[in-house]
């Protein structure tokens, strides 16, 4: 079972008619753009954090009620100030490697959640320019409208917001987005519904933006429940050796060939990050420094990530006799 933390909800803020922010009375480390996994009654769901670790005193997630969405309905109907929730540690790799980078951000609907976390951190800590393209159905569905306006007023030379309202302009097409050509040298971050992200990715690629400058966060739906599952029993058989660097500490383990890396680490008391355990969320992502592994499943990393040596610990088995892995 996952090592989870219990946190008390400080307040629930109604952001729009169907979106709420759940603010926690808690203090933990996280990076802008990361997500939390919450126990929502009998299921677990991942929700991005909309707070900035650099600006906001209290962490928060923002959740939009989705028609027929069990997790979002459970939160909107059950969570109040004083509710105690089970959460897994912050996870995810949708985070700028430098807050000084120039950033071109695309958010569709509630995809603004991790993006506003990045915006607040970059504007307060970095020195680069930030351009946000924010697509919504109509004006009433724009989450964080006044907060974005205040940030644009405070940083007129560094921050620009381009609102795109489907009710007025229809859906954006790759041709519309070519107007963003002056910003294609920036690091791009995309979060929103799949059709929106497909259009944006296509537009960026057609303007010559390389894959390694396009960072995509996909909404995922967990089929399992990491709060309930137990770690498998140790397997017998042939073993490799793995050296792992996590939180500035080095560990060396014998690694059975048929045991997934994440299971090995958890069994040995290492607090490696994870959420879905099914290759879908990237919470467990780490980097191979030496050797080779094979992944049983991968629904989240793209070729560029794989070329950089990124793998999913929850799906990795050893191939070579010696493997070196880092989480830094
Ligand atoms: S824990 Fe989600 S991909 Fe590994």
Measured by DSSP, the beta-strand proportion falls in 25-35%
**Overall average residue pLDDT:** 92
CATH architecture of the largest domain: 3-Layer(aba) Sandwich
* Tally of distinct domains: 3
Write down how many β-strands occur, each being a DSSP E stretch of 2 or more residues. 18
CATH superfamily of the largest domain: Nucleotide-binding domain of ferredoxin-NADP reductase (FNR) module
Poorly predicted tracts of residues = none
Helical coverage, percent range: 10-25%
Q: What is the CATH class designation of the largest domain?
A: Alpha Beta
Largest sheet: 6 strands, antiparallel
What ligands does this structure carry? FE2/S2 (inorganic) cluster
Whole-angstrom Rg: 20 Å
State the order of secondary-structure elements, H for helix, E for strand.
EEEEEHEEHEHEHHEHEEEHEEHEEE
Judged by helices, strands and strand pairing, the structural class is alpha/beta
Strand order of the largest sheet: 4-3-6-1-2-5
Shape: globular
Count of runs of 4 or more consecutive helical residues: 8
Distance N to C terminus: 24 Å
**What is the CATH topology classification name of the largest domain?**
Rossmann fold
Protein name: 3-ketosteroid-9-alpha-hydroxylase
GO molecular function: 2 iron, 2 sulfur cluster binding; flavin adenine dinucleotide binding; metal ion binding; oxidoreductase activity
Cofactor: FAD
Keywords: 2Fe-2S, FAD, Flavoprotein, Iron, Iron-sulfur, Metal-binding, Oxidoreductase
């Amino acid at each position: 079972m996952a090592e989870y933390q219990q946190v008390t909800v400080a307040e629930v803020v109604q952001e729009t008619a169907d979106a709420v922010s759940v603010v926690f009375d808690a203090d933990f480390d996280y990076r802008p753009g990361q997500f939390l996994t919450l126990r929502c009654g009998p299921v677990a769901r991942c929700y991005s954090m909309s707070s900035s670790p650099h600006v906001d005193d209290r962490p928060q997630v923002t959740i939009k009620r989705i028609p027929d969405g069990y997790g979002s309905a459970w939160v909107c109907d059950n969570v109040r100030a004083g509710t105690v929730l089970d959460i897994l540690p912050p996870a995810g790799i949708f985070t700028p490697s430098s807050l000084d980078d120039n950033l071109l951000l695309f958010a569709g609907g509630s995809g603004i959640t991790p993006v506003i976390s990045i915006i607040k951190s970059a504007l307060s800590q970095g020195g680069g320019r930030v351009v946000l393209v924010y697509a919504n159905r109509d004006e009433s569905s724009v989450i964080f409208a006044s907060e974005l306006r205040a940030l644009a007023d405070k940083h007129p030379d560094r921050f620009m917001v381009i609102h795109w309202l489907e009710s007025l302009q229809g859906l954006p097409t790759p041709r519309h987005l070519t107007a963003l050509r002056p910003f294609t040298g920036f690091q791009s971050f995309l979060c929103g519904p799949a059709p929106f992200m497909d259009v944006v990715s296509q537009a960026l690629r057609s303007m010559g933006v390389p894959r390694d400058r396009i960072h995509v966060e996909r909404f995922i739906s967990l089929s399992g429940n990491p709060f309930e599952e137990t770690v498998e029993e140790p397997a017998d058989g042939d073993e490799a050796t793995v050296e792992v660097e996590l939180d500035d500490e080095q560990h060396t383990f014998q690694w059975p060939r048929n045991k997934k890396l994440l299971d090995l680490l958890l069994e040995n008391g290492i607090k490696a990050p994870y959420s879905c355990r099914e290759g879908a969320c990237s919470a467990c992502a780490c980097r191979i420094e030496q050797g080779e592994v094979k992944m049983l499943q991968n629904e989240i990393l793209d070729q560029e990530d794989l070329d950089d040596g990124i793998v999913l610990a929850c799906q990795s088995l050893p191939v070579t006799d010696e493997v070196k892995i880092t989480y830094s």
